């Protein structure tokens, strides 16, 4: 009977084209509004590295001053100091570890037709690439020796490599960065996790890929200042060396453990490290040393802002409003079908059959509304994407959202159809048949 | 085929009670062609609706083809209606956006016949009423008489034991009415029991029995020569 009712539903769409169009449009607009905002929320809050997000940890060590501190309050920054970062790296915890900070550097292109320009990128240690499953197009990450001696080596993004060298493999070539010749050891393929969870400071959290990578030690050796935010609770003093020795926070550390269960061990080690530092007169707040896996980190750093959540609620409120309108339209549509319901009841349809028929009919409206809603949602996302690079990165639909669009649409239509369908079932056939 | 014993139907509003049927007794035997007559408001329609399981009765007993219908739930009543009854209405009640084939198909769908069985029954039924060549037409493309023939085909397609007809010729001119009546007589002759509500005394005298309803009670009439007389009087010597 499903196929029969489905065909009747499709046929009924043609019965009253104006009313049908109004219903479909009402539903589609509501679906488009809710789906487009939900898509953005979904992309903003999705797990950027699901295969190992429970094994990647970022530590937070509060090195702020005691003055004005209330026990239990959050640290002032989401980064740590260089000295802590260096110590954590040396501690050798986890199966991999890295410390990183954002950098920018001028590049002298090898081609005369391209003017020098500035690159933005990252200064991590070698483990970064394996920890975050960064895909390589050519070459590979630099070596541990390169890390140790701060070698002038660089990994380029695919976009920059193609801009400078076309389709050729540039590994082994030398390129002038900050006025120094750097050897290209690798080119990464397109890689832009959403959000950019590994470095959330600096305001740019979406749609900004790294253009180049140089070893942390190299960056420090060349005294490349950080590209992003920094928090200093006291005067850091002048010069790069003073910044390295200060309690200013501007660097992020990540650990990768063999399993999520190794977290406790890492936490113990971190607590012991902090205790040792306190003996040296540091970390006077005696605050809890925090460890966040990736999903926790996204929550803690409020990657998804209150505004985004509010917008989503508003959009669903709008969908509810559209549903109320759809209910009214369906009531009107079904009320003129009372005679047909009477006939069907007389010919042997039970109330349950009538309920099924009309619910499937509303599902057909939902399906058509879903298709139109999808088109409108794509249009809305394209418009949102034009607002900027960050929004463009999250304003696109994946297959999960595609399926969800139809689920929302058909679900909404069924929800809207429940009352009209129930009322259709209550038709007294005898009265309808006589009144014909 | 159909037996109602001491049946009553009371319509209640918060203000008044209306007794549509009271102490209603009737038995229709298999193969009969029974007309139901009576003045407006006498209870004819209530009787037909209750007989067709479209309305519940207040008290009494109703046996339809051996099944006591009292207390049956909606599913069981619908199944019984679909399997044992056929309906013909004064206003034809065809579904306007279904063609003739699909209109006749409606009760067969609820019966659960497969596609080939349904096709065979639809074609047979439309052939019987002389409209097999127009099965892709829509009701609006037919005359009133033809529409009523389609309604008869729809009622017959499921091979019902009892055909309930509510003023089937009421909306037709004399010639069309005669054609429909002849068709019903053929159907009855082929073995289907028919219960027909009518205002037309000419039609009433053509059937085997006439049930006259007054104030919700039955007054059974039978044919004696060209006229109808009270069944009780018919037993008395002329």
Q: Percent helix among the residues of chain B?
A: 25-40%
Distance between the termini of chain B: 31 Å
Shape of chain A: elongated
Instruction: List the helices and strands of chain B in order.
Output: EEEHEEHEHHHEHEHEEEH
Gyration radius from CA atoms of chain B, angstroms: 18 Å
Characterize the biggest β-sheet of chain A: 6 strands, mixed, barrel
Instruction: List unreliable stretches of 5+ residues of chain B.
Output: none
Spatial order of the strands forming the largest sheet of chain B:
6-7-8-3-9-10-11
Write a brief caption for the model.
With 436 residues, chain A is α+β, with helices and mostly antiparallel strands. Helices cover 51% and strands 14% of the residues of chain A.
How would you sum up this structure, described in words?
- The complex is a heterodimer of chains A (436) and B (238).
- Chain A folds into two domains: 176 residues, no CATH class; 227 residues, no CATH class.
- Chain A contains 16 helices and eleven strands.
- Chain A has a six-stranded mixed β-barrel.
- In chain A, helix 2 crosses helix 15, helix 11 packs parallel to helix 15 and helix 13 runs antiparallel to helix 15.
- Chain A is elongated, with a radius of gyration of 30 Å.
- The mean pLDDT of chain A is 88.
- With 238 residues, chain B is α/β, with parallel strands linked by helices.
- Helices cover 36% and strands 29% of the residues of chain B.
- Chain B has eight helices and eleven strands.
- In chain B, the strands form two sheets. In chain B, strands 6-7-8-3-9-10-11 form a seven-stranded mixed β-sheet, with helices on both faces. In chain B, strands 2-1-4-5 form a four-stranded antiparallel β-sheet, covered by helices on one side.
- In chain B, a hairpin with a 4-residue loop joins strand 1 and strand 2.
- Chains A and B meet through helix 1, helix 12, helix 13 and helix 16 of A and helix 2 and helix 3 of B.
